[in-house]
Write a structure and sequence with these properties.
The structure is a homodimer. By secondary structure, chain A is α/β, with parallel strands linked by helices. Chain A contains 14 helices and 12 strands. Helices cover 46% and strands 19% of the residues of chain A. In chain A, strands 2-1-3-4-5-11 form a 6-stranded parallel beta sheet, sandwiched between helices. In chain A, strands 7-6-8-9-10-12 form a 6-stranded mixed beta sheet, with helices on both faces. Chain B binds a DNA duplex through helix 3 and helix 5.
DNA sequence: TGATATCATGAAAGTGCTTTCATGAAAGTT
DNA sequence: AACTTTCATGAAAGCACTTTCATGATATCA
């Protein structure tokens, strides 16, 4: 009667109630084959009776692992990042791992995370999304043997899921050129905090390359940078008000492409006739608005990241891997 | 020299290196005033030297708190839910709490979580979003003294952030009536899994009430249910092809309202002239597409939930609270 | 100067589990 | 019948901290 009242029965209670030792209870739970069937039966019945559930932290302590993997990400609620998060969550859902999300909104934050997370030992693995990791950080992560997978920012010493931003920019440019455009512009990202990475510069580089190959140039006046959100600023207005404005624009992100699309339409421009627009990312809403874009399969990148992480957790001596996500041009109605 | 090589110095290493006992080290860290200034100085110097960081889980175990709060949510990557998540994350960011996300995608899942999370005791608090909680579940959560805040689904015995769906439906209906509409329809949610809650029925009830007050009725033919996503199914097509179709439709969620908007436009209908549309939620993209809607301030609900949770964590004997989020009609271009 | 209060410190218990190692019984072998 | 394996089980150590309680050393008071 005492046991049934106890709100938190421990393994000791189970042992006592069943007349066995805690070692046997533990075995029945974790290595059932090491226990006789009869005993196993008995243990299970008692467990059900008194409602025993192993305490996670005690288990973690003894096991030297925590059953938790951390995800550190900036803008984790931005559409594209959410898709990634979904991939991670799905990848983790079939395992017994929990997902701890560390939103980072300042440079202090990330430094702090990288410095203390490995030390407090409260995580089995770490997925770092779209954040620059210094050699120092990388060394620290390795020294403290916390398995880490980087998404988007590559580091030679760490597992990485890479996006070939250069290639993506090249694809976008080539596509526009093939469509006959000769005056093309670029919409980049402005005002990104210093701790975030800047993939748009590589997208721009690839874009430039494609133009060069076709003997075209990208005039300074055709390059515009705007904040990473739906509401763009006046610099975009100006670009569209140019006497000789571009006939096509490659936006470094879908979010901005959508902002651009809206402004263009407000100005009475027909898309794609007057102005072709191609984005990058393929966020969920891209399909809704019919945005032509370069898909980088965010969901898949997240899922891949956890698969990579899990495989390393199982076999820690595996070589560091650098996977590349396949880019894909999705043709819709804006270009 | 041994200490400096050890990648994970423990409190014992600090004790040995400083010639003090682990008890004193612990005190110097947690109750500095209980230790002589000289000793404190000495301890700190050694800690810095060998790079000691207390292991979080060991600390949690001894302290009986974990520094972690759990968020269980369905569809946690759907636009509206993400906004809520952002509110929760922001609310938590100024604290030392970590956010563990438990995505639920099956009924088994939620039952399982509610039954085991409190028992494994690896969480200080729990925020349950948009999930039905039975009396049994509620009792269990209380018995096992895990502080819980429910969002959207109210329970008398637990803290709740409520949304007045009935009132929202009423507001939507009243607005359409005031605009002169007499033939109004309703777009509800179909195919929601059984573990999710169904706020749309209350939204519908409120909507009906407003119609009744104006002497109007809602014909069966004007009620349509479609999946909770951007791509709606043919039932919506049929509604719009009715000989005498409604002049206005209240969609139970913004996501569906946007789907409806797209279909209407594809059919050549002018919105709002031919068909007025009003949604519910005010997701981020609602502003982009100019959707008139009932805002339920998802972000705020999340933030409020953590504030409520934190205040209860500090003062556990506080009475259970039931907060109501203020709804707000946001007039844009679709109605 | 002897008795008492104050204070910094250390020893040890507690936290709830896993796992190694030892033990004794049953089964198999010759 | 004596001996070796095999197998289920229990005792106990280990995980890395916090905190209570006891102790001995000072400081305080009469």
């Amino acid at each position: 009667m005492k046991q049934t009242k106890d709100p938190f029965p421990t393994i000791y209670d189970v042992a006592q109630a069943s007349g066995l030792s805690i070692a046997t209870i533990s075995r029945a739970l974790n290595n059932p084959e090491k226990v006789s069937p009869a005993t196993r039966e008995r243990v299970m019945r008692v467990i059900d009776e008194i409602g025993f559930v192993p305490k996670a932290d005690a288990r973690a302590r003894a096991l030297q692992n925590t059953g938790r993997i951390g995800v550190v990400s900036p803008f984790f609620t931005a559409p594209s990042f959410v898709q990634r998060l979904r991939g991670i969550a799905d990848g983790l859902s079939s395992t017994h791992y929990e997902m701890v999300v560390y939103p980072v909104d300042s440079g202090e934050h990330i430094k702090h995370y990288i410095q203390t997370l490995p030390l407090t030992r409260s995580l089995d693995g770490l997925i770092i999304v779209s954040m620059a990791v210094s050699d120092d950080d990388a060394r620290r992560l390795r020294d403290y043997q916390i398995e880490t997978v980087l998404i988007e920012f590559p580091h030679p010493k760490l597992n990485t899921i890479e996006i070939d931003d250069f290639e993506g920019g090249l694809m976008a440019g080539q596509y526009l050129i093939d469509k006959g455009h000769r005056q093309v512009g670029f919409l980049g990202v402005a005002g990104l905090p210093e701790f975030a990475i800047h993939p748009e510069s590589r997208r721009l580089a690839g874009f430039r390359k494609s133009l060069a190959r076709a003997g075209l140039t990208l005039p300074e006046a055709y390059i515009c940078n705007a904040p990473y959100r739906l509401e763009l600023d006046e610099s975009v207005q100006k670009l569209l008000e140019l006497a000789e404005r571009p006939t096509a624009i490659f936006a470094a992100t879908d979010l901005q492409a959508m902002g651009l699309l809206k402004i263009a339409r407000e100005k009475g421009l027909c898309v794609p006739e007057d102005l072709a627009i191609i984005g990058f990312d393929d966020i969920d809403f891209a399909d809704y608005v019919g945005l032509t874009t370069i898909r980088q399969h965010m969901y898949q990148s997240g899922k891949l990241a956890v698969e990579l992480l899990l495989s390393r957790l199982k076999q820690p001596d595996l070589d560091v891997q650098h996977l590349k996500i396949q880019l894909e041009l999705v043709e819709r109605n804006t270009a």
